[in-house]
Amino acid sequence: MERPCVRVPREAGEETRRALAAADLVDEDHEIVVDDGSLYLPVTDPEAVGDDYEVVYRDVPVHDRQRTPAELLGFDPSYERLGDVAILDEDDPTRAARIAEAILDSDLPVRAVIDRASKVKGDLRVRDWTVLATDDADRDRPPTETVHREYGFEYLLDLAEVYFSPRLATDRHRVTEGVEAGERVVDMFAGVGPFAIPMAARGAAVLAVDLNPAAVEYLRENARRNGVADSVTAVEGDVRDVAADHAGWADRIVMNLPHSADDFLDAAVTLAGDDCLLHYYDIQHEDDPFGPGERAIRAAAAPAGYEVAVLTRHVVRSYAPHELNVRLDVRLSR
After folding, report:
1. What are the start-end ranges of the H helices in the chain?
2. The pLDDT value given to residue 94
3. Which long-range contacts does 295-301 make (Cβ < 8 Å, 24+ apart)?
4. How is residue 261 annotated by DSSP?
């Protein structure tokens, strides 16, 4: 069966494998293939790989040493893995239970299988889950709690308590790699820290704000786990209530709340220093994916005396039919 693979020259194979493993994108169920000087590394999510690598589809053998859910079921089930939790999106409870049992009986390092029971909802951006199967060996942790590893960092999180998307790993890495030591960064919707922690590790002082108290607790724990607790100030609350206390402080602002970031642009302008880089995430129709965000930013920044320069217009991923998740990198200068 054809699988998505990253194709790289053979000499770049190990470096690429490490980068994909750090982003939790390596498909452990299939073998790496060498063919005519190229290495083919199977990946779990081709959309999350990003533009830095070439993705192709080709036949790759299944690992002989690993018993897979597909072998047990007789068909290839659809699921995601986040750390040691497998995630389904099944409408049929009988089919979901069968897949969950096969995943636990396979050789995958999975301790729990859960099924999406609702869409992301509410101000805290969480969803309901149905727990289908768990490994009886670990009853001290909630079945929805796991540790996700991404580009050399690890994040403890509970999917029932916080919002987290591993599919944004490549884009997060692209943004955080631009941070320089000494910067002052505000992450307006910080979650468990996938922007804040890598930025702090690069030498930035980070103010990380989130409305969700559980997310803030995990953020503080993750800052400790990754050795950046002294560089991350985690604040629970609405960033619009926090902004006035840090007016003019930020050299860089992350606004990753794509459905409603425009509601928070006045707070972003308050936080921005005289020269500030804004990473603004949006979801818009494919006919004009960047225009609404650009217009909203200009409308908020002009009354405060800022000039607006759009540096990057980047499509992060396809979000829904005819809708795109995009990122605008914008410099605000007085």
Report:
1. 13-22, 46-49, 69-73, 93-105, 169-176, 196-201, 213-225, 239-242, 265-271, 291-301
2. 95
3. 296/262, 296/265, 297/265, 297/328, 297/330, 299/265, 300/265, 300/266, 300/268, 300/269, 301/265, 301/269, 301/332
4. G
Structure tokens at 181: 């030591």
Instruction: Name residues whose C-beta falls within 8 Å of residue 327's C-beta, 6 or more positions apart in sequence.
Output: 171, 175, 279, 280, 281, 282, 312, 314, 316
pLDDT digits (tens, 9 = 90+) for 125-158: 899 999 999 987 667 789 999 999 999 999 999 9
CA atoms 282, 284, 286, 288: torsion sign: negative
Q: 8 and 38 in contact (C-beta within 8 Å)?
A: yes
Segment 212-216 shows an average pLDDT of 97
Q: Terminal CA-to-CA distance of the chain, rounded, Å?
A: 56
Q: Which residues pair with 179 in a beta bridge?
A: none
Task: State residue 134 phi and psi, 5-degree precision.
Answer: -140, 155
Please name the residues in contact with 135: beta carbons below 8 A apart, sequence gap of 6 or more. 104, 110, 111, 112
**Residue 166 to residue 159: CA distance in whole angstroms:** 12
Confidence band for 192, pLDDT divided at 50, 70 and 90: very high
